[in-house]
Amino acid sequence: MTKSGRKIFNMVIAILVAIAAWVFVVYNYDPMTLVTYNDVPVNFTGERDLAERGLAVSATSMETVNVTLSQRRIDGKKISAADITVNADVSDCVAGDNNVTIRVSGPTGTSVNSVSASETDVDVSRAKTEIMDIDVVYNAEAELEEDEEPIAYDLGSTSAEVSSSAEVLSKIDKVAAVLDREDLTDTPKSYTVDLQALDRNGNVLPHVVIDPKEISLDASEGYIKKVNLYLTVKDESDDSYERKWVAPETVTIKGTESVLNKVNSITAEEIDVTYRYEDEEIEINYDLPEGIYIADESLDQRVKLTVTQKKDDEDE
Predict the structure, then answer these.
(1) 220 partner at 20 to 30 Å CA-CA among 73, 104, 116, 201?
(2) Contact call for residues 149 and 196 (beta carbons, < 8 A)
(3) Could you tell me the CATH number of the domain that includes residue 292?
(4) Domain identity same for 38 and 122
């Protein structure tokens, strides 16, 4: 080996030894450091136990806490707030004001140095229960085009029993299985999804007990399109009642892009109002082509019927 070659060889060996020494020191003698994680959510356990007793959490003084962990410096990039467990068990709470201990634990190899609060006030009230339809939606953070909406098939359940305080219940806009847009393609896949109570802005509402807790379903990506609706209302009555109705002229449908491009209108079954004597909203039965579904915004469309008794000439 030449003198130059030996010099290069020795430099390489020196670098490798230095790296090995650094790795040894870091992993065996890495000093502990304090790291604070802000706004770690408090998980309120035992709310199903409360619901079985006809109670619900209506308010708390603490929904998040700041946690300081003692941890190895090298683990700084590996640990996030999601790795910290913060629990408050409300199963033994009674109606009215309660004080509940907050228990915190960090990942293996860490220890809890401090928590911004050790207790939380919990207000418990009588629970109210309601049955709600289950929607399938994309998560609120997804960047969506205006015409995107998931297609769901074979839902394990189409409705859920919702239990919460009256105040929280009034804020619920929908109960939903929330899907990640990036997970869906034009080919249906199977999912098991926790149900969530959402407000009008798509935010998850806390302190809501939903039964079932989760559902299974198949889902694929979908798109929506507004098309003409052809609907006939028949009235062959000859009596002392006048019937007037308002029927939608369009309907919003959804499907894959290739299927939607082939559909420009939808027909519906004829509605006969001849023997109807009260004001009502009549469900529409659509004649949908294969692969076409009614979009969320048109699910509640109805024919609105108004029935009034005619006046006799003698009464005028």
Answers:
(1) 201
(2) no
(3) 2.170.120.40
(4) yes
